[in-house]
Amino acid sequence: MDVGTIARGMMACSSSHASGCPMQRPAPLGRVQPIVKPSSAVLKLQRRSRRSAALCVQATVAERLEVSASPYIHEPGKGLGFYTGTDGYLYVDNLRIDDIRAQVPDSPFYLYSKNRITANYKAYAAALEGLEHFVGYAVKANNNLPIMRHLQSLGSGAVLVSGNELRAAEAAGFDTTRTIFNGNGKLPEELRLAIEKGALINVDSEFDLENIAEAAKAVDKAARVLIRINPDVDPQVHAYVSTGLANSKFGIRNSHLQWFLDRVRQEPLLELAGVHSHLGSTITKVDIFRDAARIMIRFVEKIREEGFDIKYLNIGGGLGIDYHRRGDKIPSPADLVNTVRDLVADLGLTMILEPGRSMIGNASALVNTVTGVKTNGNKNFIVIDGSMSALLRPSLYDAYQHIELTAPCNGKQDTFDIVGPVCESADFLGKERELATPKAGDGLVVHDAGAYCMAMASTYNLKMRPAEYWVSDGELKQIRKGETLQDHLRYFEGL
Ligand SMILES: Cc1ncc(COP(=O)(O)O)c(C=O)c1O
């Protein structure tokens, strides 16, 4: 479907949505989205809340605006990324999400704000000013091609964990000499490709170094390598996203550093370009980056003493985002860089950061449709069409992602688990959430779904991977087609 012009013809929702929950997905009315003045909208919501004990989540949030200036509430059409309008509807950039739902044939679907991605990249670029640096976007977080193309056009490099990610990065236009190939199990053919393309390669273990040396000989080209060191600083995150401890499956045994240096020295086609570390993901305390940088600098000094002229200090990615959308103080890229700036400024090294989540996470939401509401025992469930197949993080890590209805709703306020249709009890998107009781057809978004969501989506239960759209300078565009059953059946043709 060509949706390039959808935004220009974007339709307003039925006015009944403002006072109640629509039974059906919103139907276009054929006029341009009206912008409601915040003061009158807030007053209206306050009047309604006085009339009804059952407050809508959106109304409650909008009322709080007057006292707390939440970063997630803005005048309709005036915010960046995903926010609640002071009219109680959810928006992305200038567009009402219910209007987008009315135009998009798919549900669930991923929706992005391109301007938010730009702002996220620029926050890193600005934070690193004054330091020799490059930013490597961690493609594992989200490998959508237009998104990758956009980030490279802004000046980003790329961090890759497979040969296919390297090929995709090249297809997206990344300069492959500004990419880093990471991983504890890189395959010989992937290493040959990385060397041919001039990528920096992280050395993860003794066997990995041997494989890199072999690959360099096979393609007769020097391999530029970084040694991945585990600073053994606890990132204080979920065990599944902690990567830099002494017992981690990633990185070298630090006590064996000398073996790695000697081995590199013996191999003319190995060029030791720097050191790398990655502590983990969802990090919300930047002082651990300072602790890690201090440790890494000791390694740099030791390596230089051994006569190696190294050029790069890569301190990884890992910054968290405000998944609870409470306006918590999450460190910014500037906070991260400023924590280590004085330590690294005079080292004569190019600093590399590898953000994934903080680049793309808050730039997207999974937009779903409510299938129905049910109660079993003492549990209420909102059943939606999205599921763990489309978005796995809650099932995988028990991760919290904030959930909201897309429109004001007068249904009874209650506590719900939000679950999908997949045949697993682990199929939930959120637990114990306070929401107004929606009706079938209402819109429900799972926020902060840009990172490690679509990238981890599967076709479990033959729930096909969703389509993706972004809002680009005010216009809605499709940036990935939804998968179809025909795509699946193709794998069996001609066997
Ligand atoms: C080596 C490496 N670099 C960068 C990243 C990106 O991390 P994040 O998305 O938390 O910024 C990861 C993710 O785990 C990683 O393993």
Strand content is 15-25%
Uncertain residue segments: 1-68
Number of helices: 15
* Global structural class: alpha/beta
Using only C-alpha atoms, the radius of gyration works out to 24 Å
Helical residue percent band: 25-40%
Overall shape: it is globular
Sheet with the most strands? Answer: 9 strands, mixed
Work out the number of β strands.
21
Distance between the termini: 31 Å
Unique bound compounds: pyridoxal-5'-phosphate
Mean pLDDT comes to: 87
Pfam families: Orn_Arg_deC_N (PF02784), Orn_DAP_Arg_deC (PF00278)
Keywords: Decarboxylase, Lyase, Pyridoxal phosphate
Protein name: G13155 protein
InterPro entries: Ala_racemase/Decarboxylase_C, DAP_deCOOHase_LysA, De-COase2_C, De-COase2_CS, De-COase2_N, De-COase2_pyr-phos_BS, Orn/DAP/Arg_de-COase, PLP-binding_barrel
Characterization of the model:
The chain is an alpha/beta fold. 30% of the residues lie in helices and 22% in strands. It contains 15 helices and 21 strands. It has helices at 16-19, 38-51, 57-68, 97-103, 114-127, 145-154, 163-171, 188-196, 206-219, 257-266, 287-305, 333-344, 357-360, 393-397, 485-490, and strands spanning 73-74, 82-85, 90-92, 95-96, 109-113, 133-138, 157-160, 179-181, 200-203, 223-228, 270-276, 312-314, 350-353, 364-376, 379-384, 403-405, 413-419, 428-436, 443-446, 467-472, 475-480. The radius of gyration is 24 Å and the shape is globular. It starts with 15 loop residues before the first helix and ends in a 5-residue tail after the last helix. Pyridoxal-5'-phosphate binds at residues 138, 141, 159, 182, 243, 278, 281, 316-319, 354-358, 451.
